[in-house]
Amino acid sequence: MANKKSKKPYVTVIMPAYNASRTLEWTYNELPHDIVDEVILVDDVSADDTIKVAKRLKIKAFLHKQNRGYGGNQKTCYTEALKTKADIIVMVHPDYQYDATKLPQLIQPLIDGRAEVGFGSRLLGGGALKGGMPFYKYLSNKFLTTVENLVFGLRLSEYHTGYRAFKREVLENIPFQLISDDFIFDQDIVAQIVYFKYRISETAVETRYFPEASSINFWRSAKYGLSIFRTLMRYLLQKSKLVRYSMFKRMKHDYERVK
Predict the structure, then answer these.
(1) How many CA atoms, within 13 angstroms, populate the side-chain half-sphere of residue 198?
(2) How far is CA 196 from CA 89, 116, 184, 247, 250, in A?
(3) What is the mean pLDDT of residues 75-81?
(4) What's the CA gap between 156 and 174, in Å, rounded?
(5) pTM of the predicted structure, to 2 decimals
């Protein structure tokens, strides 16, 4: 007897937005809407028309009353996504920097059961520099990724991507609300993912660097890089049981799916 075709997972895309009015529609139109069931955008008090564009595109949009930072934005995104029917939650930056058409390849390992988290890697396949990534960012990315691989015992090509997919269970069980509201949120949550032994897959994605694409400046990048070492130290101390951090305490988020 032939196996029954598995049920299509409900896919919710979240977009942490800040001054993305020029690029939001480009990004939204690139999404594979035959696969994506719902799109949620959280605007972190933009100074442009991001919310107006989102409403015109009929995206479910939320507006922070005050700026909460990149990490704080993601926290709201994931919280709202967990209130939907989502089986898989995908973060797509609305700045058109990442190729949203690669979403099916990004989530396939999660559907197949080969991973619980998917990263869209700009460095896998060597397309980062071709896409315009500044050389200093490329070098620092490679260096930090090497250090993180040593600490985490993995062999990923990049940890610093903003194109990520999560099985629902991951975000339900890790205490992402207890980590940073700043850019280091991305690496704090990676440390949590690794600590709780969730598997990470990688998919090569093209990237685009241009004036409208969001990017932090050199000094913010330097601060971000130093903060990564603090996160890695906390991970090592937690693993060695010398210190206990609340960010590594498994926590069940009680969000009921919309029926």
Answers:
(1) 25
(2) 18, 11, 19, 11, 8
(3) 97
(4) 21
(5) 0.91
- Please state, in angstroms and as integers, the Cα–Cα distance from residue 31 to each residue in 94, 108, 114, 254, following that order: 11, 15, 23, 29
| CA distance linking residue 41 with residue 57, whole number of Å | 11
Is the pLDDT score of 106 beyond 80? yes
Q: 186: which 2 tokens?
A: 């991305």
Q: Which fold has domain 11-244?
A: Spore Coat Polysaccharide Biosynthesis Protein SpsA; Chain A (3.90.550)
CA angle 72, 109, 94 (to 5 degrees): 35
**Which of 159, 166, 186 is closest to 109 using CA atoms?**
166
Name residue 206's amino acid. E
Q: Is the pLDDT of residue 257 over 80?
A: no
* DSSP, residue by residue, the chain: -PPPPPPPPPEEEEEEESS-TTTHHHHHHHS-TTT--EEEEEE-S-SSSHHHHHHHTT-EEEE-SS--HHHHHHHHHHHHHTTTT-SEEEE--TTS-B-GGGHHHHHHHHHHTS-SEEEEESTTTT-TTTTT--HHHHHHHHHHHHHHHHHHT---S-S--S-EEEEHHHHHHS-GGGS-SSTTHHHHHHHHHHHTT--EEEEE--B---TTS----HHHHHHHHHHHHHHHHHHHHHHTTSS--GGGS------PPP-
Of 164, 183, 176, residue with least CA distance to 227: 183
Task: Give the total residue count for the chain.
Answer: 259
* Angstrom distance (rounded) from CA 80 to CA 91: 13
